[in-house]
UniProtKB/TrEMBL annotation:
Membrane topology: Multi-pass membrane protein
Gene Ontology, cellular component aspect: mitochondrial inner membrane
Molecular-function GO terms, alphabetical: NAD transmembrane transporter activity
Top-level taxon of the source organism: Eukaryota
Solcar repeats: 18-98, 108-194, 197-288
Cellular localisation: Mitochondrion inner membrane
Protein known as: Solute carrier family 25 member 53
Record keywords: Membrane, Mitochondrion, Mitochondrion inner membrane, Repeat, Transmembrane, Transmembrane helix, Transport
Amino acid sequence: MAGSPDRTQDEGGLRDQMVRFHSYLHGGTSSLISTLIVFPVYKTVFRQQIHNTSVHRAVGQLLKEGAAKLYRGVAPPLLMRTLNGTLLFGLQDTLHHQLSLSSQQVIFPSALPALAGFGAGLVEAVVFTPFERVQNVLQNGQNDRHVPTLKSVLVRLKGKRLALGYYRALLPITVRNALGSSLYFGLKGPLCAVVEAQGLSPGVSSFISGTLTSMAISLTLYPLSVLVANMQAQVGGEVKGIMACWRMLWESRQQSVALLYRGGSLVILRSCITWGIATAIYNRHQKRSD
């Protein structure tokens, strides 16, 4: 029967599945584009975090190594960020949809995006910690001799226990990603509405909201990112726990917050470009799909 409730319900369910699929597709696309644009900036920040150098010196190191090495190590982050965006945006949208159906007003609707983002961040940490581990090893210039290629890194990490190999620094990554995702999805929507109310276009509003949100998150959680980079950059040698690594990091920065935040200015720039572009592209595609 053409107008039967069952058929209408089936069609509605199919449309709903397509909307969820679009969230995964658009998340991956937006992340891929933004990653290609900001990778040189990311690599400069990484050098500052590992070698405790100024922006000028870090850029000088990269220029000395030449253009051929500028995108050395881009494959893992490109793959990671594309898959990351696919999972993060798509899973958050799926979790948000499920929570909306099942919460029955036990949870305030305004809190659902942040709660779904927290769940997506937990899954993201478990899935992508190995990618980040490989990326940090490859981008550490001190590893060029004994692990010069992606294959050599993979072989070296495979021979270690998960906690020391691919899943080194899982706990701080989980904390960083869960909190960061929760704040991002909880804040970007309200900020976008506020900016758009000033008369700006939806695309510009999305870019600004993504920029401001990620800027605040990056600066807040930056010490965790520095800790993760230092824990994951080495392969072999003496293995220390989280607190021991944090004490070493704090002492190496002369117990100075300013030195701990070295590279923070470029983190702001990277966040502005990456999440501004990603948010704008994602929101635009989602509106077209609705």
